[in-house]
Amino acid sequence: MVSKATVDKTIARLDQALASGDMPPAAYSLAERISKRLKSPVRLAIMGLPGSGKSRLLNFLTGTEVIPKNVKLPSVLVAWGKVKKIDCTLADGKTKSLDSFDIKAINQLKPVFIRLKLPLPVLKKISILEVNIGTHETEQKRALTWAARSTDLAIWCTQDFTKAEIKLWNTLPSALHDHSLLVMTKADAHSDKDTRAKKLGALRSAAAKLFSNVHPIDTLQALAARGKDGVINESRLAKSGGQDLLRAVLHAVDQGIQASLDGAVILFTSYQISDLATPAQKTPEPEQSKPEAPPDEPTELLVPKEAPTPPPDRDDFNSEIVTYLADRVKELQTQLSESDALDSEMIMAQCYEYVEGLVEQLTTRAANDPDILHTLDACQDAADMMLLLQLENQDSAVEDAVVLLLQIKRDFEQKIAA
Predict the structure, then answer these.
(1) Under a CB-based contact definition with an 8 Å cutoff, are residues 183 and 217 in contact?
(2) Nearest to residue 114, comparing CAs of 61, 60, 73, 155?
(3) Tens of pLDDT along 214-270?
(4) What is the C-alpha separation between 52 and 165, in angstroms, rounded?
(5) Over the Cα atoms of the chain, what is R_g?
(6) What value does the mean pLDDT take over residues 45-74?
(7) By CB distance 3.0 to 4.6 Å, which of 4, 56, 61, 133 could disulfide with 143?
(8) Can you tell me the distance from the alpha carbon of 355 to that of 358, in angstroms, rounded to the nearest whole number?
(9) What is the pLDDT of residues 14-51, one digit of tens each?
(10) Buried residues in 299-328 as b, exposed as e (16+ CB within 10 A)
(11) Is the pLDDT of residue 101 over 80?
(12) Which residues are paired to 116 by β-bridges?
């Protein structure tokens, strides 16, 4: 298990290097990302087809009934918060907050995404996203693409891991495949040991090329293993498969943290970032003595290998972005004028593609201009909102997507005028 002391020391070393102001922009951006990752809970996503037992598994991992039985919701992120709070993101991008998990009030808002903050200790270590992928292949792929952008560890819930599921799983980034678990939920449906063993064997065979193991869990029994007084029946938990799954999740979480620590070590070595500075003891200065000469070696935390490359003129760059967005809007207008019927799915897909293209340009720019990172984050949020609009597929989604695209263009025009 990764020690807290190692994590804390690495964070302190990263923060000290960031505060020095001596790092090249590329190194600064990387150090900032690693520091943020180590300070934040590991982002776990529960994925799978509708009805595969995702909500029950979420309730088990959090140790409480977060999502009631037979409740249909959009994707839900459960994260740490000192007080319970529910934030519902609407189709227009606005957020409405609720003090309680009132299903009727939530349904009236028709949110496309829900963020639920709870004061549960486990959420200091992991946040949990239950991904609602819908029933049609196109929206399923969109949902998984959206979720993968903010996932460190993925759990796929299944009973059979069919060819359709394998096809969906393969749409996820290969890097996420290396940080994932396959869980056979609803193992209680196979109470007979022989039937269960046969089912598990078939599932392991189907998933052998994609997962190193399959974790069966009788989720109802795992939930029941925790008594009303909070005391856990260890025997019942082990028999349900819940204990093995918890160990697997914690091991995967540790691996993710270790990967960030390894990235920090590479950063420290590549950019010659020294260890944490220790305060020097002050010695009395002799009377009428001359000031000591500065040491031969620099005392900075970091000695960059080369001077940072100055970023190109920001106004020119902003003008290029405005031109790019203006051209994309013209393309949409041309296609709409030449089309007899409104193809909302095509327009939504293109709007998302345009914003993704903008994110790529900003990512390249951010390597030499850290000040652009705030704009990059805003555009990534816009790309996420585009995907949510596609998933919700409401009548106003096309209008909302185009308005969002025009808003980004206006924001860059204001940057030029400032």
Answers:
(1) yes
(2) 73
(3) 999 999 999 999 887 777 888 999 999 999 999 999 999 988 888 889 888 888 887
(4) 11
(5) 25
(6) 93
(7) 133
(8) 5
(9) 999 899 887 777 788 888 889 999 999 999 999 999 99
(10) eebbeeeeebeebeeeeebbeebbebbeeb
(11) yes
(12) 78, 86
- The residues near 403 (Cβ < 8 Å, ≥ 6 apart) are none
Cα dihedral across residues 114, 120, 125, 131: positive or negative: negative
Q: Where are the beta strands (DSSP E) in 230-375?
A: none
Instruction: Check residues 303 and 357 and name the one with the higher pLDDT.
Output: 357
Nearest to 118 by CA among 74, 70, 73, 61: 61
DSSP secondary structure of 367-394: TT-GGGHHHHHHHHHHHHHHHHHHHH--
**Amino acid at site 14:** L
Which residues does 402 contact at the CB level (< 8 Å), separation at least 6?
329, 332, 347, 351
- Phi then psi for residue 67, to 5 deg, are -110, 115
Q: pTM of the predicted model, to two decimals?
A: 0.69
Q: Could you tell me the CA-to-CA distances from 212 to 33, 158, 206, 248, 267 in Å, in that order?
A: 29, 15, 11, 12, 30
